[in-house]
Design brief:
The structure is a homodimer of 221-residue chains.
Chain A lengths: L13 H7 L11 H22 L5 H11 L2 H10 L10 H5 L6 H19 L1 H16 L11 H11 L6 E8 L6 E9 L2 E8 L2 H17 L3
Antiparallel strand pairs in A: 1-2, 2-3
């Protein structure tokens, strides 16, 4: 019977689950209204998880952490772990263009499933299911680093280990006066890593370069 | 015992209620973290109320309606009905400057009270209390008018009553080339009302003027 509760919840009303997995392109009833409700449910479960887990975090840190936790790329990652893609009902056009792999469609469907669980079985059941999905995202979550910009985080990473600070170097500028592109290199020595970043300002290019180094140090966020 | 449940909930833990009513200016433990949690709870209860009450509204209309329902001025109005102001703990500076009457402080405290009820008694109790507070706001709520701009709403108001359409007239322009200010008059004949609106574009000034007429017709939103 494992197939009947792929999301950690056994639906009494399978119609709700089917609707949650139906993209607008496949016709009505589709999952857009459920997504609206699921977004609010997810927001609450994420907020409470952070509130309980980080008793000393202030409101600003909690708010930034919640945005990180519920952003599209995070939800799409959870949806992939839960194998949402192959279960989606899509119209032929979306099917052809790979809609079942698209972040936005996956994350919307995940939110709709959250609402479907709530309508099927109430808040407690919904909360338990969603907390289980969020758990891997919350593991090792460092609330005070969320929302800080990449240059600051890289600097703190290095200072915390008493290593030399990064060097940034402007490699080039191009484009018209009103649409310039800057390319910056970032280098650190321990470990010896280098990256390049591009952006519409020198600062943006430096941030992109620092983010690339951070990714090498910490893995993708 | 009516004094013990001013918010439609009798707190087992009076300390939670006290914290929810304590503004940051009065020292710790204050209500900022509770406000973070309460904001998410309110968002969910409002979303579900709209989802259930407007079964044919699409996601866009629901999203706009929710924003209207949970905005600061709405929450401050609810807080005033619940007599939150006189119960607030404020620091001496905020006390002197009338902080217990300020929209932002009232709406933050209301959100914190929502979280306090949740932590005291769970989601079901919290939902019942919040729904009761929202009820007067939802009465007569016209979901398809929310989020439409003021000119459109004014036009629809008049057309729905088969009355003449408004006239807009540019009264003046001033300011530098890059910071111009436009002043526009709006006049309707049934009932005979006039208003002026100001804005950084002619359209913005017209919207402001239409909003002022709507407020005369419908009362403040």
């Amino acid at each position: 019977m494992a197939g009947s509760d792929p999301f950690g919840h056994r639906f009494a009303d399978q119609g709700l689950l089917a609707q949650a997995l139906t993209h607008r392109s496949a016709g009505a009833p589709h999952n857009e209204r459920l997504e609206f409700l699921g977004d609010a449910l997810l927001g609450l479960v994420a907020a409470e998880a952070l509130y309980q887990r980080f008793p000393r975090a202030d409101e600003g840190a909690l708010t930034r952490a919640r945005a990180e936790l519920v952003r599209e790329s995070t939800l799409a990652r959870i949806a992939r772990r839960l194998d949402v893609g192959p279960r989606l009902m899509l119209g032929p056009g979306e099917m052809k263009s790979g809609g079942h792999r698209r972040d936005s469609i996956l994350s919307d469907a995940l939110e709709a499933v959250i609402a479907a669980i709530y309508l099927d079985a109430g808040f407690a059941a919904c909360r338990i299911a969603v907390l289980a999905w969020l758990e891997p995202e919350l593991e090792g979550f460092e609330i005070n680093k969320v929302g800080k910009d990449a240059k600051t985080r890289l600097q703190e990473w290095l200072q915390g280990r008493q290593r030399p600070l990064p060097l940034y170097e402007l490699l080039g500028e191009s484009g018209d006066e009103h649409a310039r592109t800057f390319v910056v290199a970032c280098r650190i020595t321990e470990p010896a890593l280098a990256s390049e970043g591009e952006g519409g300002s020198r600062r943006a290019a430096e941030q992109a370069a620092a983010a690339a180094i951070l990714e090498q140090l910490e893995g993708p966020r």
